[in-house]
Design a protein that fits this description.
- This protein has helices spanning 26-38, 56-71, 83-91, 107-117, and strands at 12-16, 43-47, 75-79, 99-101.
- It has a single domain (13-113), classed as Transcription Regulator spoIIAA (2-Layer Sandwich).
- With 120 residues, the chain is of the alpha/beta class.
- The chain is built from four helices and four strands.
- Helix 1 (26-38) packs parallel to helix 2 (56-71).
- The longest helix is centred in the middle third of the chain and has 16 residues, at 56-71.
- It starts with 11 loop residues before the first strand and ends with a helix.
- InterPro entries: MlaB-like_STAS, STAS_dom, STAS_dom_sf.
């Protein structure tokens, strides 16, 4: 008898940011996102409703995670960005790269997520 271990992908992993996403707090956020990516989710949802600000280092981290997931056939979704966060991402010219949806539970959110992430 032989046993073969196969990696199993998780459908959705959610991470909640509750503070700024900047250079001062990058290490623990990177560790949390790396752990989430290692779970091999089909979709990684980062809830940014309570994220009060972001700098270039935070944007670079999100873009890096986005690229990692894209290469694995998965997607990153930023949920509930504040108007300020959306404005910063627009100014940084990444608003069209990073997928953003309104608050959790919205019918628009679910419909948009499925089409963006390639769900049937």
């Amino acid at each position: 008898m032989s046993a073969v271990a196969r990696p199993v992908a998780v459908p959705v992993v959610e991470v909640y940011l509750t503070d700024r996403l900047d250079l001062t707090c990058l290490a623990p956020v990177r560790a949390a996102l790396d752990t989430a990516v290692r779970l091999r989710p089909d979709r990684l949802v980062v809830d940014v409703a309570r994220c009060v600000g972001i700098d270039a280092a935070g944007i670079a981290l999100l873009l890096d995670v986005h690229r990692q997931l894209l290469r694995a056939g998965a997607c990153l979704t930023l949920r509930s960005p504040t108007p300020r966060l959306r404005r910063i991402l627009r100014i940084a010219r990444v608003e069209q790269v990073l997928h953003m949806v309104p608050e959790e539970g919205s019918a628009v959110t679910a419909r948009h997520d499925e089409s963006y992430c390639g769900a049937p």
